[in-house]
Structure formats: structure tokens, C-alpha cells
Amino acid sequence: MSVKTTVSVIKADVGSFCGHHIVHPKQMEVARECLEKAKKEGLINSYYVTHCGDDLQLIMTHNRGESDPKIHELAWNTFIEVNERVSKELKLYAAGQDLLAEAFSGNVRGMGPGVAELEFEERRSDPIVVFMADKTEPGAWNLPLFRIFADPFNTAGLVIDPSLHEGFVFEVLDVMEGVSVKLKCPEEMYDLLALLGTPGRYVISKVWRHDGLPAAAASVSRLSLIAGRYVGKDDPVCIVRAQHGLPALGEILEAFAFPHSVAGWMRGSHHGPMMPVSIKDAKCTRFDGPPRVVALGFQVTNGKLVGLYGDEPADLFDDPAFDKARAMANEIADYLRRHGPFMPHRLGPDEMEYTTLPQVLAKLKDRFEKAT
Ligand code: F6R
Ligand code: MG
Ligand code: MG
What we know:
By secondary structure, the chain is α+β, with helices and mostly antiparallel strands.
């Protein structure tokens, strides 16, 4: 057992209320029951159950390291139990959607749920932010993570603070080939951007400070690549550590003041702005969106998550400082919506391969005649 603390954020869409809209409170209740039991048994030190749109989120701390089979099994069994006892019982929409495997086999990666895990030695004080998004994909973190850890126009500390000045190392995964590469910023910034600009293929999975201090971890699963068919977008999660030689909380949040365009939204087939919202607004409505992101702030203290009011974390986008980003997101949403089924609102043909569009195109195949 390690003296280090691990934060595991494991999420799945196991069905939702009134369409692909919102997790039902009873689903969260059952999840809490399962995690409370695991806490009493000493498997995990603490937990917080929440949701972002139709995704059930399990945020846990423990001392078992990343990719621990017992922790992954706990998450898998929790999702199964929620699905059996609530999603199926209430006939919630798309019950069990992300539970793609028949049975648990050691690690939930590749089985449907999304996972972000970060093991670290606790500093004197360890603030963390857990980001959770709905109606988008893991590549949606590329732009904000780049800005947080590599863009001096976002993160003043990269210029001012000697401990950030040496830069950060990014691990980038090629989700198509299943290979990864580590690139160091600022030295290899242009190489890094050459990859990150294709967020449907290259996604940031980890970030370390130049001296190896773990700084961030993101989920990378692409459900369609696992299932070989369209099963919704992957609604990613991400853990970022803050302060004292890492980007400040405000530098981390600043990256979300610009609602950048991400892939996802309706039928996982459209570009739309990523709107930063509070938990109460983390429910997709207009055209199943627009894509949303929430940010919860915790202290990690002696291996446990500490909240602000009892267990409740800080709901960081519940703040008028992000009203402008939300208004801009609504403007962008209007602009893009007016394109209807046209690109660049609808995704390009490469990305549409993983949707239901090819089935429609296949029907027309034999009707094409040689153009004269
Ligand atoms: C996007 C998403 C939704 C659904 C859409 C159609 O990730 O989950 O936008 O794709 O609501 O859903 P079905 O085909 O289940 O009616
Ligand atoms: Mg759903
Ligand atoms: Mg979702």
C-alpha cells in the first residue's frame, strides 16, 4: 500500500432521465450507498458522487495507486448496481449505455466508463479541480490543458514563477493507433500543437511539471473505437492540481473563459461551444447541448477529499465571472445552429464515420451513375 494518495474519477452514462438529459437523483443515491460501503470496508478513503448531464460521476480517493483492479471493480459494480436497481427499474433512457463489456475484467478502461486517475504525494496543501464535461469527447481538454500548462497568455506563472518557468511535459495519446508520446513545453511547443490541433485523434492523457510532479490526468476513452459503432460521445473528465508551483486555481479556470468549439453535441455529430456551468445547470437541453463543463474544487487532505460545506466541493463555474463565457457560448450556438446539417456545424466525414451517417450513405451507394 502506497503512502501516496490517488484521486480516481470514474464515470459512466448508465441511463438518464427524460432522454440523454440528466442523471436521476436515485441513481446517485444508489452510487453513494455502494461507495459508502467501500469506505467502511477501508477500500477507499473518501468519495463524492455527482453528475454532469447524463453522466454519473464517482470521485474517490484511496492509497492503492492508479489502475488498481479493486478500485476499478468497485466503480464497475457500482455502475451495474445503479443500472439494475434504478435505470432499468425506472426505465430511464439508454439504461446501461456505457457498460459495453459482459463482465469486469480487471480494469474499466476499454469497457465503456471514462477514467482519470492521478497518484501523488500530498503537498503541505493540495487543492484540486475535477472537470467533467457532457456531450463532447476527450480531445475537448486539449485546448484548455494546453493553455493552462503551456500558454503564458493564460498562465502568468509560466513567466513569473520560477518553479513553473521550466515548463511542463505532456503525454499525448493517439487514440486511433493506441500509442503515446511525451513532449516538453516550451521546447517542443510547436510539435505538441501539431498534434493537439487534431483533437479527434490526439488527446492529452497526462501532464507533469518539468521535475516529474504529477499535475493533471484526463480520460481518453473513445467509446465508438471500443464498440466499433456509434454509442454517444465520451463525455470526458479531468483532474488538475493547483497552486504552489503549479498553475493557480484562477489560471486553471481562466482557460474556460473562452468557450472553444468542441465535437459532440447532438448525436455526437456536431461542433459546438463548450459552456462552463454550475452543477445546477449541468443538463443538456438545446439540441442536446450545448456541450457543458463543470468544475468542482476540493482540498485533498490526509488522503481524503475535503469539501467546503460538509462534503460539498466548491462549484467553481457558479460565478458571474463566467456569465460572459456563457453568453458567448449562446451566441456561438446560435451561429452554428443556423448551418443546420452543413459543415462546419456538422462534423467532417472522418468523424462522421463513427456515427450513424454511414448507414444512410450506404443506401445511396448503388444509385450513383457515371457522370457524363
Ligand atoms: C449525444 C447524445 C444525444 C443522442 C441523441 C439521439 O452524445 O447522447 O445527442 O445522440 O439524443 O439519441 P437516440 O438515438 O438514443 O434517440
Ligand atoms: Mg446518454
Ligand atoms: Mg453524457
